[in-house]
Each structure stands twice: as C-alpha cells, then as structure tokens.
C-alpha cells in the first residue's frame, strides 16, 4: 500500500465505523446493570443512585438520552480547566498537531461520552468503580501548568485531581437537571422545574458521585443552595475568553488549527459525522441549550444581551422540535448511536427496574 493510500484511509468513514461496536464504549468487561447483583448482606446493589432516586428520574427520560451530550458539552465549555485539558491533551488536540484530525474525530469523541459514563450512573457499584478507575487512569496525564495564557494567575489544572474531577462530575449532573427541567415533556405538561425539595434531593444524591471521583469533602454539595455557593467559590474558573484556545507552548490557536484541518481533511463519507457533530450536537442542540440556560451562563458564553434574548426566543419556538426528538424512533436511534450497546442495555434495565420498584414488585 502506498503512502497516498494510507493518508486517505483516516479520512474515510464507513457506516460500521460511524456506528461503532461495543469496544468503543466498554472498558474492563461488560457492566452489570444496577439491581442485577447483590451486596454482601444479600440486598440488591443499585449502584450510586437506584430506582427511587431523582437522578434516575432525570437521567432516564428520553429528552436526557437525546440531548445529554449537548447540554453537558455547553456547560463544560464554560469551566476553563476542562477546556484547557482538551486543548493540551485530548485526542482532538494530538491529531490537530499531527494534521490528521477530521469531523469524525469530533463526532466520535462526543459519541463515547454518554456511553462510557453510563456504567457509573446506571451500573452496580463494581461497574461504577471500574469505569471510574479507567477514567481516572487516562485522565492522570491530563494536567498542565497553565489554564489560560491570558490569566496565568489562575495556575494549572489536573483532570484526575479532586477539584477538577469534582467539577467534571458536577457539570455532568447539573447539566442533566437543567436539560430535564427545560426539555422533558412529562406528566401531560410542557417542560417545567422540579419542586425545590426534589431539586435539593437531586443534589444530595449527586454527592455519591462526587465522592466516587474523589471530590474534596468540604465542597460536596447537598442542596441547590450548596451548589450555588460552590459556583461562587470557583467563579474565577468559569468563562470563555478567546485566550483559552491558545496553546501555551506555541502561542497558536488550537480551535483555528482544528477547524482548518476539518476542511482540509474532509471526505464526503464524513457527511453523517458532520451532521451529528457539527449540525446537531455542536450546532443546533447547543444553541437550544444556550437558550434554555440562565442569563448568567449565556453571559459567560460571551453572548450580548440582544443575542441572549434571541437565544431564549429561539429555544421557546423550537419546543415542538424538542418534543419530536424525544419520541420513540428518534430516541432509540440516538440511544444506540450515542450510548452504545452496553448503554442501551443499562438504560433499558434501569427503566424496567424503576417501573417494578414503583409498582411494588421488588
């Protein structure tokens, strides 16, 4: 095979490569669904949350299955240590430096996200611990002395260390609650907020996930008020200044380099990846998420007051589309594509368990 043929291979995306097999998501063996194993005392092992949790109510809704990555990605794009880690150490960054990054890489990165987290959210305790061990190991190298060249006083970041591991977990979980309250049609009603009591209970349940990832105990929130106070405490680490995209070592702009290579390395077989990653997850879905977010977050994203108001209006007008996307055919398609075979099994098992428990059959 000649050099030219090898160079072309990375650009071509087959249907099989787009959809991925189980190995794209699975680590350390097949995860065991919550409730399908027992604790030493013989009681069911429901993992971190379980069928009576508010977390499962939120997570298992079809709207969450479809829009989870877009909302998480938008919220995490405002936490600067996460963006610094992507800029300096992510496969997207490494492939950009090599000149081989494509739209498929952007799609595949998002595709792995939900499904690789599912064992921690929906598996038994051992499955949750195994996946976190894997993620902690690969994130150990995601560290650097500079979060933002524009504000060197912020210091460095370390994805596997307590502060940044905690915020990765909290932005995942808070974005799901925000999604659920903004997009989940339920109880015969349009999307609406949980009661203050259920919101507090949600964050109290999230504490178990924070402890799994090694969060500082003094920072673990147990209520919405605790969560608000945590945002205030770490306010300097949130924002989206243009300097975040600058590689500290070279002074070059990571985002500009990457998007330039997306165009250079484009092949027509990548069109499905462009649609899912560029048009939906990083495009329309994130725009809708921005319109559903708080004014404070939109300001953190750099939106002007006028643009912020237009985003809110746009999201309200798009609610019929949001409703359609959480119907059965669309949800099932997204579930397999973005959560993977193991994720599908975990979701379906958790939903069935939740129904049995609430019916008093367990």
Automatic annotation (TrEMBL):
Q: What is this protein called?
A: Oxygenase MpaB family protein
Organism phylogeny: Bacteria, Bacillati, Actinomycetota, Actinomycetes, Micrococcales
PANTHER family from the entry? BLR2777 PROTEIN (PTHR36151), ER-BOUND OXYGENASE MPAB_MPAB'_RUBBER OXYGENASE CATALYTIC DOMAIN-CONTAINING PROTEIN (PTHR36151:SF3)
Q: What Pfam families does this protein map onto? A: MPAB_Lcp_cat (PF09995)
InterPro entries assigned: MPAB/Lcp_cat_dom
> Where does the ER-bound oxygenase mpaB/mpaB'/Rubber oxygenase catalytic domain start and stop, copy by copy?
56-311
């Amino acid at each position: 095979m000649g050099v030219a043929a090898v160079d072309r291979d990375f650009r071509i995306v087959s249907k099989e490569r787009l959809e991925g097999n189980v190995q794209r998501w699975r680590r350390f063996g097949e995860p065991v669904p919550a409730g399908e194993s027992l604790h030493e005392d013989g009681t069911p092992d429901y993992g971190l949350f379980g069928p009576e949790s508010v977390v499962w109510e939120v997570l298992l809704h079809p709207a969450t299955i479809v829009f989870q990555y877009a909302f998480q990605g938008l919220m995490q794009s405002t936490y600067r240590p996460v963006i610094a880690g992507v800029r300096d150490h992510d496969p997207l960054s490494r492939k950009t430096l090599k000149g081989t990054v494509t739209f498929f890489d952007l799609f595949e990165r998002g595709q792995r996200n939900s499904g690789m987290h599912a064992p921690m959210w929906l598996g038994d305790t051992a499955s949750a611990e195994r996946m976190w061990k894997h993620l902690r190991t690969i994130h150990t190298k995601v560290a650097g002395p500079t979060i933002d060249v524009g504000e060197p006083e912020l210091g460095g970041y370390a994805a596997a260390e307590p502060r940044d591991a905690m915020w990765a977990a909290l932005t995942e979980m808070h974005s799901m609650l925000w999604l659920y309250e903004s997009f989940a049609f339920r109880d015969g009603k349009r999307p609406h907020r949980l009661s203050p009591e259920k919101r507090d209970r949600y964050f109290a349940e999230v504490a178990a996930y924070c402890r799994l990832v090694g969060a500082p105990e003094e920072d673990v929130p147990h209520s919405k008020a605790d969560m608000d106070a945590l945002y205030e405490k770490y306010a300097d680490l949130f924002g989206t200044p243009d300097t975040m995209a600058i590689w500290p070592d070279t002074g070059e702009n990571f985002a500009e380099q990457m998007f330039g290579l997306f165009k250079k390395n484009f092949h027509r077989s990548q069109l499905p990846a462009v649609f899912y990653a560029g048009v939906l997850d990083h495009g329309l879905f994130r725009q809708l998420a921005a319109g559903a977010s708080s004014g404070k977050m939109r300001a953190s994203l750099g939106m002007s007051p006028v643009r912020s108001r237009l985003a809110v209006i746009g999201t309200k007008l798009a609610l019929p589309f949001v409703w359609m996307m959480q119907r059965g055919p669309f949800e099932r398609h997204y579930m397999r594509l973005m959560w993977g075979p193991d994720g599908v099994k975990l979701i379906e098992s958790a939903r069935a368990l939740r129904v049995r428990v609430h019916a008093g059959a367990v």
